[in-house]
Sequence to fold (128 residues):
Amino acid sequence: MAGQKIILCDTNIIIEFLKNNKDIVDDLTRIGESSVYISTITAAELYFGALNKTELDNIKTKIGKLIHIPLNQDISDIFEKLMLKHSLAHKLSIPDALIAATALYYDLELYTLNIKDFKFIKDIRLYK
Fold:
């Protein structure tokens, strides 16, 4: 992942992209498809939220063009530390902690509409 600026997108960004939110579409277009990554957790959240088979197939097709970052042992270790530190004090959710752990492990900027869900995490870099 060295050499090019890569942005890790939170699930809410991809949801807005799928809804054709002009500002998000413009941002992601400017960033460039090859620089837009998602966590495997984001893919799972999107699949879980599909209302029917047609929507699921549409989601799968559209996010299939993006790079999906899988979980690994190091990300899992960071995730557990984040949950221990923030689950009670900040109600950090499991998916958000996994996405944050991925961003931290790879030192990626996280593009999210829910800054409040991540701003308390030390060393997290938020896009914009």
Remarks:
- The domain at 7-119 is CATH 3.40.50.1010 (Rossmann fold).
- The longest helix spans residues 73-86.
- The two ends are 20 Å apart (CA to CA).
- Helices lie at 11-18, 22-31, 40-49, 53-63, 73-86, 94-106.
